[in-house]
Predict the 3D structure of the following.
Amino acid sequence: MDAKEISKAVIKRLPRYYRYLGELMEENVERISSNDLSKKMRVTASQIRQDLNNFGGFGQQGYGYNVRYLYTEIGKILGVDSVHPMIILGAGNLGQALANYVDFEKRGFRLVGIFDVNPVLEGMAVRGIEIQMIHELPFFLRENQVDIAILTLPKNRAREMAQLLIDNGIKAIWNFAHIDLDTPDDVIVENVHLSESLMTLSYNLSQYRREHVNRAGEDGDGGNRL
Amino acid sequence: MDAKEISKAVIKRLPRYYRYLGELMEENVERISSNDLSKKMRVTASQIRQDLNNFGGFGQQGYGYNVRYLYTEIGKILGVDSVHPMIILGAGNLGQALANYVDFEKRGFRLVGIFDVNPVLEGMAVRGIEIQMIHELPFFLRENQVDIAILTLPKNRAREMAQLLIDNGIKAIWNFAHIDLDTPDDVIVENVHLSESLMTLSYNLSQYRREHVNRAGEDGDGGNRL
DNA sequence: TAGATTGTTAATCGATTAACAATC
DNA sequence: TAGATTGTTAATCGATTAACAATC
């Protein structure tokens, strides 16, 4: 059972397979070949077969993959077959937006607590869950099993609060703060750096414009509108 | 000036360099060597030098890199040295959270419009910007230059609205909907698939638990709490 | 000048794609 | 059985790391 190391690239692709298989299920597609799926997803069939075979032989020669079965199996691999209690730290706009995200519940991600440092928010509720003050966190974590902490605090508070989470036994952090957390080996961090994503978009847009400067009409400004 | 193709991996790393250089500037650090930066960022010095040299020789032998200069140059490469007018499509929780994100303004990402399909929201304002109905979008895009459209609609509306954006000349979409948009070559899409990010976290957590099942106490349940 | 550190070439490593034998 | 398609090995491609000459 010694799992051979699965590459990060493969893991990042798994949720996308899961999404496509879910869509196929909704369309009542029963089976699909790596070739047909590759056309839908715009990846190579070879990659699909390689990726899936990291986890086991889910297909059948001459038949392809059973959609429902593969969906279920990938779900298990991703751990969405069990319930993951979550808390949110930081009840600002983003924290509240995530709290209101019903889609997560469908996958077993269940919000069980919201915390903030701002006393103005104390007692307010988001989706039926009362916002608590941070000082109540250690007690809460002793009394409730929590798998995942969502960090939606401004970066000046984030590092300190991450430490508090770790000190109280949290093993997985979904980090939206614009910092890289420095955590022990047994704590898993998944970063969502929105401003970096936006800058990547900005780079690609700027690059596209740079490349097309001298083709977009010969009126002197080269098509560069700013 | 024919730019040799820069790999996607390099581009994804640029905003992170930019962030670290910004922090160094705040700490009044004047110069830094690839070696010192590599320790801070936990990447190899070799990678830093390779990455930067895709865009030009920003350093100096025996000295290192001037922080302010490098920060400015990477800013230009990323296109954050100019203003990018943006609109939001979808004034739900996430759309509003992004609208309230002051940090973006600092980098030249300026919100100029918010649109939704829900008539209940008509006339409401977010951060001083009135929510408009989608049917006003084509006129708005004719009258205003808009660089980037942020798509924060549920997936059943997203595809159709993306098409509307493209038909009206939008060239860059920051997509938060859980679908892959099918766009022409001259339209740039940057995806933020939150549920996929959360599932990656869930995979890593589950994997960690699977690996440690037989070490966490010999009481039979193997330390697996669910 | 001597020391430091870049820019860049070469070596290594890892990930993707191609090919095909196995098998349903 | 014949056809289809997987699972898997081998080949290719690309990205990262190491090494070092150039040079400040």
User: Anything to note?
Assistant: Chain A touches chain B through 61 residues (CB under 8 Å).
